Amino acid sequence: MSPDVARSIDGGAHRDRWTLDWLRPGKRPIKTDPGSIVHVVDGFVSVECRDYRLRLPAGTTFICPPDETPRLTAFPGWSPQLLHIARRGRSNSASDPCAPTRFGIVPGVVFDDVHVEGAMSAVVLALSDCNTADLELEVAVRRATAALLAGQRRSRHLARHCSGRTRERRVEQYSRLARARAVLAWGDDPSIEVPRVAAIAHMSTSHFMAKFQRVFGCAPHQYRIERRMGQARRLLLDTTWSTMQIVHCIGIESTAAFARMFLRHFGLPLSTLRRGAPANELRGE
């Protein structure tokens, strides 16, 4: 089957209807459906929402907010390939792990979860196989969304640290914090000030900093450094990109600033790794 052909899977009268298609954004933005799932198969993509922008690499999965229509564009110098899954459900059964519920999937970015990435890769392979029956593809999609839910459940317990008399209110506050966390990790502007991030979470600066520390266990600035250095480590170990490409993709202002941050964070000079030093020191093994 050609990867340019969209697939629609109807699971029956009591199941969800899935629409899968490939997206290849260019310089002109393309819009996605609210609440849909976008998995970056290859390349880098820029995601523009109402009040923030993200730059996402291959292997990440973006869950679109239910009340927004994000715009996707190719990151300069890349030709990204994206898998788009839109779910138009007719079942809200609580017994169905993939049934759409109001708080079933928290909008944001899912990353560093091998189960989610593996499940999404299985969908990509099934969709690309011209001999794959719809039933096999449906199973792959449902497993992928179940993996998304499971991956989020592992972090959703953090919502208990949020404010609110009901679970729905606590999860709603957590989703705003998770959105701000995504901006810190993947935001298009790496130097964005904390007050601006707090505004994205619809909180005052002091309240945001206190809640972020309580829920995620570190200060916003510390989290931003940890995440962006983690991205750099992955790119250094898993790609042959130049230092300039990595600096550009993770949003550091210059190669010199990146080299200083890398040395300070990992205790190794960047040139040592590029010469083939043992990677296990950077992988934390």
Summarize the structure in words.
With 285 residues, the protein is of the alpha+beta class. The chain has 2 domains: 7-161, Jelly Rolls; 222-283. The protein has helices spanning 114-128, 134-156, 167-186, 194-200, 205-216, 220-238, 243-250, 255-266, 270-274, 280-283; strands spanning 7-10, 17-23, 30-31, 37-42, 44-48, 53-57, 61-63, 71-74, 81-88, 108-110. Helix 1 (114-128) packs antiparallel against helix 2 (134-156), helix 3 crosses helix 6 (220-238) and helix 6 (220-238) packs antiparallel against helix 7. The longest helix has 23 residues, at 134-156. It starts with 6 loop residues before the first strand and ends with a helix. Mean pLDDT is 80; it is low at 90-103 and 281-285.
Quick structural gist:
With 285 residues, the protein is α+β, with helices and mostly antiparallel strands. 44% of the residues lie in helices and 16% in strands. The chain has two domains: 7-161, Jelly Rolls; 222-283.
Report the portion of residues in β strands: 15-25%
Question: How many β-strands, per DSSP?
Answer: 10
Q: Please identify the top-level CATH class of the largest domain.
A: Mainly Beta
| SS content category | alpha+beta
- The poorly predicted ranges are 90-103, 281-285
Task: Give the strand order of the largest sheet, numbering strands 1, 2, ... along the chain.
Answer: 1-2-9-4-7-10
Tell me the series of helices and strands, N- to C-terminal. Answer: EEEEEEEEEEHHHHHHHHHH
CATH architectural category of the largest domain? Sandwich
- Mean pLDDT reading: 80
Taken together, the total number of domains comes to 2
Largest β-sheet summary? 6 strands, antiparallel
Q: What count of helical segments does DSSP give?
A: 10
- What is the radius of gyration? 19 Å
How far apart are the first and last residues' alpha carbons, in Å?
41 Å
The helix content, as a percent range, equals: 40-55%
Per CATH, the superfamily of the largest domain is: Jelly Rolls
- CATH topology descriptor of the largest domain: Jelly Rolls
Shape call: globular
